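About this split. The held-out portion is used to measure sequence recovery: a designer receives only the structure tokens and must propose an amino acid at every position. Recovery is the fraction of positions where the proposal matches the reference. Here is one held-out target exactly as it appears in the evaluation file.
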């Protein structure tokens, strides 16, 4: 792999002189780095020894300068994923004339000491003489009951409660009117047909007038009339005073 010349030194001569950084050149899966010696420190020292500028290297490798600085300071948590670290680290090490695979092994060895192993909590097995059937059944029953209560409370709001109207009384207005006319006519006929008595000349007239006034003052109280129009699909139940259903239907919108 060819590298750009910098400060009148070729990449090949840099590689030859870079063998002094034996910590990376000898790194492998079985290599144990010195205590406190980080991979980023070795890369930064090699770059400074070569006299290369970090921004120039970043532009050449098309890597953000902030990522290269993070590698030199071993701030690997600034990368989106571990794959970014491995890819950038390989390119950076090979640019400096070092072995990219050995640099990755060094990185993995360094990160092995940082990562904590998760603590696994093993569940405690149930004793043989203990059966979980009854507790499970009780819990399942309670869960079903709670679900039913919730469903009923939400579905109850969609029901339309309609008061049962009282049955209409017989049509007595016309009959009363005709009856009044008949009574009045009869009374009038009685007035002119019956001769006046010497003892009570106005008795028949007063009696007929009283009946006519009583008939005229008779009023019929009409029961309230209710019209139900469904704005959405609703279940309507109409029952009489004894609870007997008179109307039971699911009304559609617009009915």
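Reference sequence for scoring:
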């Amino acid at each position: 792999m060819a590298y750009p010349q910098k400060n009148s030194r070729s990449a090949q001569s840099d590689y030859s002189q870079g063998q002094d950084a034996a910590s990376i050149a000898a790194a492998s899966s079985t290599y144990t780095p010195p205590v406190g010696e980080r991979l980023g420190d070795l890369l930064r020292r090699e770059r400074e020894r070569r006299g290369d500028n970090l921004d120039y290297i970043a532009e050449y490798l098309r890597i953000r300068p902030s990522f290269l600085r993070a590698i030199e300071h071993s701030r690997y948590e600034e990368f989106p994923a571990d794959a970014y670290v491995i890819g950038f680290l390989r390119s950076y090490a090979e640019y400096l004339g070092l072995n990219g695979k050995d640099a990755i092994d060094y990185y993995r060895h360094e990160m092995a000491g940082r990562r904590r192993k998760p603590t696994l909590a093993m569940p405690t097995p149930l004793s043989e003489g203990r059966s979980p059937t009854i507790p499970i059944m009780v819990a399942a029953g309670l869960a079903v009951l709670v679900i039913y209560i919730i469903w009923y409370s939400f579905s109850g709001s969609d029901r339309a409660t309609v008061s049962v109207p009282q049955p209409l009384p017989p049509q007595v207005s016309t009959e009363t009117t005709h009856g009044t006319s008949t009574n009045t006519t009869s009374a009038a006929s009685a007035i002119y047909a019956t001769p006046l008595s010497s003892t009570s000349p106005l008795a028949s007239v007063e009696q007929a007038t009283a009946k006519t006034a009583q008939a005229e003052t008779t009023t019929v109280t009409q029961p309230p009339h209710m019209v139900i129009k469904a704005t959405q699909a609703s279940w309507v139940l109409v029952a009489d005073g004894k609870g007997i259903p008179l109307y039971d239907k699911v009304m559609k919108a617009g009915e």
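Annotator remark: The radius of gyration is 53 Å.
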